[in-house]
Amino acid sequence: MDTTYDVVVIGAGPVGENVADRVVKGGLTAAIVERELVGGECSYWACMPTKALLRSASALRAARRLPGAREAATGDLDVAAVLGRRDEFAAHWKDDGQVAWLESAGIALHRGHGRIASAKVVEVTGDDGVISTLTARHAVVVATGSGALVPDIDGLRASAPWTSREAAAASAVPGRLAVIGAGVVGSEMATAFAALGSAVTLLARGGVLPAAEPFAGELVAEALREAGASVRTGAEATAVRRDADGTVRITLAGGEEIEADEVLVAVGRTPNTWDVGLDRIGLRPGSWLTVDETMRVVDGGGWLYAAGDVNRRVLLTHQGKYQARATGDVIVARAKGEPVEDGRWGRHAATADVSAVPQVVFTEPEVASVGLTAAAADEAGLRTRVVDYDLGAVAGASLHADGYRGRARMVVDEDRHVIVGCTLAGPDVAELIHAATIAVAGEVPLDRLWHAVPAYPTVSEIWLRLLETYGR
């Protein structure tokens, strides 16, 4: 079968879906190619199922922090119910609903493995081996995302380790779980499985959440230890083996050995570009795709785009969807000969990927951040002032939970008098981060922020306290 569309998208995760949707809404035709489940990593093996695993324990902790509610919370987590709720959010790993949405949006779905064959041509190999050819009039978009990186640790691959996929879709809770890597995935899954009853050992080469402000990782490490987990900083795994009885043995630098029933590897991501035909157009298979501000691939012939994880700008679903909206819109603009707004904060540019990226880590406590850390601001050469405040001292926080522990930091560019970074660590701070995102993305002057009065008594009063500490 040979079919022509205006745009062909390889990858039907949230990014690919959003690109195709914007293209169709712009009056062009679009096809999307998917070799697994429509909805992608986020729907089945990442954002949705992992947050479902974490939420029940978070709610129970919240209840236990309040007199009256504490007395009503008389039992432990129902593990089967937690896993069942996770299954519901993962749609039991069936994509019928997502496929129905594609149909309703007017997006053609081609199931199979998509590979670029030549300029604007994609070959799709179905499960039956039949190859169909899709031709794009205007653009091909690679939105194949990323996969878990499994490092070259002696014996690790042979030991059948878990990656983020196996952890998110686990049908049972291991008695002992070792986690190699203490970034976002490692910290979240250590939090989740410790709450579900695993004896967790978290192995961090450096600290916990090394990309965040140091205080955030320290609070998470403290909470994990209080939950019964072993947090080992400065620990490097040098060898892994699985015995005949299923026991996993992890050897650390220095010779110490740790035993577990499962080992989760969470040390980073790798681009899903090994087998999408990059070699046929002069690009290197397995590489991250370098793009300009409109997500058009550098040295990609002018017709090839890459959105989401695959371009390595920011490996977050919401940022990938943000890129997707810009990508779809700019493809339509170029196809129709309309002006391209690719300047800073232009409609067709992904400016926020550089300066205003929000992220929430759903650990205990939650860590929410946007923009630059203090260290990153220094590295960027900015003249900054860092303002810290104890979140637990805010009236709204003390009402929110007895013994509320948390901290807030804002990083101020002293030359422009705007906030360039904000980090909040504490129970339920996720819902506070969008206010900070608006302040950073909008480059709102501090003098104007004084007039954004937080409601009392809420945790949002932290904004007033940070400004007071900074001074007028």
Automatic annotation (TrEMBL):
Disulfide bonds join 42-47. Keywords: FAD, Flavoprotein, NAD, Nucleotide-binding, Oxidoreductase. The keyword Nucleotide-binding applies. It holds the Pfam family Pyr_redox_dim. FAD binds at residues 51, 114, 144-146, 309. GO terms for molecular function: dihydrolipoyl dehydrogenase (NADH) activity; flavin adenine dinucleotide binding. Gene3D superfamilies: 3.30.390.30, FAD/NAD(P)-binding domain (3.50.50.60). Its EC number is 1.8.1.4. The keyword Chloroplast does not apply. Residues 357-463 form the Pyridine nucleotide-disulphide oxidoreductase dimerisation domain. Its cofactor is FAD. Transmembrane segments: none annotated. NAD(+) binds at residues 181-188, 268. Signal peptide: none annotated. GO terms for biological process: 2-oxoglutarate metabolic process. It comes from the Bacteria. Belongs to the class-I pyridine nucleotide-disulfide oxidoreductase family. This is Dihydrolipoamide dehydrogenase. It comes from Catenuloplanes atrovinosus. The lineage of its organism: Bacteria, Bacillati, Actinomycetota, Actinomycetes, Micromonosporales.
